[in-house]
Amino acid sequence: MVAVAQAHERYKVVAIDDSRTMRRWLASAIATDARLELAGAAASAQEARAIIKATNPHVLTLDIDMPHMNGLDFLGHLMRLRPMPVVMFAAGFSTNKAFEERALELGASVCLPKPVMASKTDMVHLCDTLVDTVERSGRHRRKDPIAALDQVDSLVLVGASTGGVAAIETFVQQLPANGPPVVIAQHMPQSFLSSFVRRLDRLVPQNVSFAEDGMRLSAGDIRIAPSSGYQTCMTWHSRAWHLQFTPNRYENVFCPSVDILFASAVPWADKVGAVLLTGLGRDGAKGMLDLRRNGARTLGQSEDSCVVYGMPGAALAMNASEDEMPIEEIGTAIIARLDRARGQDAGR
To answer: Are residues 175 and 323 in the same domain?
Structure first.
């Protein structure tokens, strides 16, 4: 028998299906069960991304046949960036086992055929399946507050210039949705940065916005340093990272400056992972060297994956970067190195 959720907690469900009729049926079924609530419904992958980000559901129902991006492609993208329980629906599951095998391979929790003549029994079976899927995943359990704090002990700092837009998009898609906060300094006029921030926020499940003076950072935050006359710096207090702006009084210095961003975190370097991506010049190399000398983990983008190898090349020449990697690997690698460093500290 399926365990009943505690009375004060309902499991949030997002239903994703391009059929209005099916979305209505799913909503009706979920409304009959006191253990569940419908957090939102989407007709496409694009709509689903925004709803998932806004509601942080416990479980999804996902149709395999959808416009623009089919359910299997969306499932693969979701499991790479924001893993969560998913109940897949398809008319073809009953006749084509290859669909079911592929969905389970990509990370679906269970696959159900779409009901032909939906009955009350189908509704009960769906609701029991949703609750069972959440509870088997452990997603309903509250996080240990100490573990949650530990997530934001670490910080990822990123610098980029020429070619950085595409590189950053690739980089952030490798990061865990609830990973350490990330602060990015990209050389770009403010008007272009504004559209870039909006694009990144649509692209990934993390909370993407401009850095603001005094802002406290949380796990899953991605902040972009503005280029509006103030330099973006970091400070650590009250068991959290905070952003701190300083007037840009420096001549012949980029705003935002990667060197200034990196240098501001040197007092807490053992908590920091620093990354230099494609870009013209040397901005960030000196700051990265100071971070590395004080215990930070540092990585540069490999020459063959850069549009311009200036910034990471300068860092490597100064022995500021521990290693270089292709852009497709560097996000995963910096998180893994921070996790290992945190584990080593815990074991001391």
So the answer is: yes
